[in-house]
């Protein structure tokens, strides 16, 4: 406690730290659950032994192999991709000042998916490092196109028009993606599995290759936080406070491109995480007395999103054991009703 602070003031200052710490503890617990649960349940003590040394007894080597070869890469990928998708959604909602903004809803995910499938089936790109650049380009092109489409009309850009433009572009790109895949049956099975959105079947090498892109996007997103606080007061106020809005938007779009393009390239087009998580973060921040401060909202979104993705992944492993349901399918069940509720809260007369 600083000199002159009352216990009440010190408690208010500690609330954001406590909230972030609690969310981090939930994420750590879900990471342990992700390492322990699946088609074969592994006791937590064996998981800890596998991570710190050697699992004794019969079956110990098999448990180590499952933990290190399958579940550690899957869990790390879930955390990294979850952070990327949650930050993308929070950043897009702040930049557009639109509560319906989300990489999946606004066509960014579909743009990355279309470009990746195009590079694989038409151009013959076969490596992750090859087609990830197409994912970045597709994410950027789709976001620009949706933004320009949403500006058409006498009323200009409104949240609902932007969401409807994103849904239309997503449907168009998804149809084109399906048409391309159907003309080439060889990658069809791989695409069907990838398009459902899953954390499975990725080794540690793939995870390490994608992390630098996601880390760069995360740093750019976090650096936008002070400017986003100014932008939330209005463009005129932000400009009066010395913010260079063009530079802020360029930085934000670059971060979204890196985060969404990188995540989609590896786990597929998982939608609705970027829509749901920022709203959950704002509710928790409001109840904790933090308010709409993006210096705390962005880290909260970055922690809540992997919690949601890992929870969906773990649930998918358990409900259909020994098989599994992809995390993207479960996220659609969660995000669909949430999106409908959000749209119903808007003034549809603005459309």
Automatic annotation (TrEMBL):
Family: Belongs to the binding-protein-dependent transport system permease family. FecCD subfamily.
GO molecular function: transmembrane transporter activity
Membrane topology: Multi-pass membrane protein
UniProt xrefs under Pfam families: FecCD
GO CC term, one of those recorded: plasma membrane
TM spans (from-to): 75-92, 104-125, 131-150, 162-182, 252-276, 296-315, 327-344
GO biological process, one term: siderophore-iron import into cell
Cited InterPro entries: ABC_BtuC-like (IPR037294), ABC_transptr_permease_BtuC (IPR000522)
Subcellular location: Cell membrane
Entry-linked SUPFAM superfamilies: ABC transporter involved in vitamin B12 uptake, BtuC
Swiss-Prot/TrEMBL keywords: Cell membrane, Membrane, Transmembrane, Transmembrane helix, Transport
Secreted found in the keyword field: no
Protein name: Iron complex transport system permease protein
């Amino acid at each position: 406690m600083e000199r002159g602070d009352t216990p009440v003031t010190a408690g208010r200052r500690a609330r954001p730290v406590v909230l972030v710490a609690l969310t981090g503890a939930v994420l750590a617990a879900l990471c342990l659950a992700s390492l322990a649960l699946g088609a074969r349940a592994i006791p937590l003590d064996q998981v800890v032994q596998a991570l710190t040394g050697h699992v004794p007894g019969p079956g110990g080597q098999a448990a180590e192999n499952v933990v290190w070869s399958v579940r550690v890469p899957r869990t790390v990928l879930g955390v990294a991709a979850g952070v990327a998708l949650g930050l993308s959604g929070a950043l897009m909602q702040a930049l557009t000042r639109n509560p319906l903004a989300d990489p999946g809803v606004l066509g960014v995910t579909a743009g990355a998916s279309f470009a990746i499938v195009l590079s694989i089936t038409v151009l013959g790109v076969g490596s992750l490092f090859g087609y990830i650049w197409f994912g970045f380009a597709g994410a950027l092109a789709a976001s620009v196109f949706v933004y320009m489409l949403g500006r058409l009309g006498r009323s200009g850009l409104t949240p609902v028009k932007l969401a409807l433009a994103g849904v239309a572009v997503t449907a168009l790109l998804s149809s084109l993606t399906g048409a391309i895949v159907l003309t080439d049956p060889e990658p069809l099975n791989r695409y069907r599995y990838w398009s459902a959105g899953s954390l499975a079947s990725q080794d540690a090498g793939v995870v390490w290759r994608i992390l630098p892109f996601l880390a760069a996007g995360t740093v750019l997103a976090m650096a936008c936080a002070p400017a986003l606080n100014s932008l939330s007061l209005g463009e005129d106020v932000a400009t009066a406070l010395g913010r260079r809005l063009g530079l802020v938007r360029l930085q934000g779009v670059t971060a979204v491109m890196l985060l969404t393009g990188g995540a989609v390239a590896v786990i597929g087009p998982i939608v609705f995480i970027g829509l749901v998580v920022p709203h959950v973060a704002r509710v928790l921040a409001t109840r904790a007395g933090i308010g709409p401060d993006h210096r705390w909202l962005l880290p909260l979104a970055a922690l809540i999103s992997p919690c949601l993705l890992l929870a969906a992944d773990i649930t998918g492993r358990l409900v259909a054991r020994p098989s599994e349901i992809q995390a993207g399918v479960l996220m659609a069940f969660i995000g669909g009703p949430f999106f409908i509720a959000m749209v119903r809260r808007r003034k549809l007369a603005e459309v």
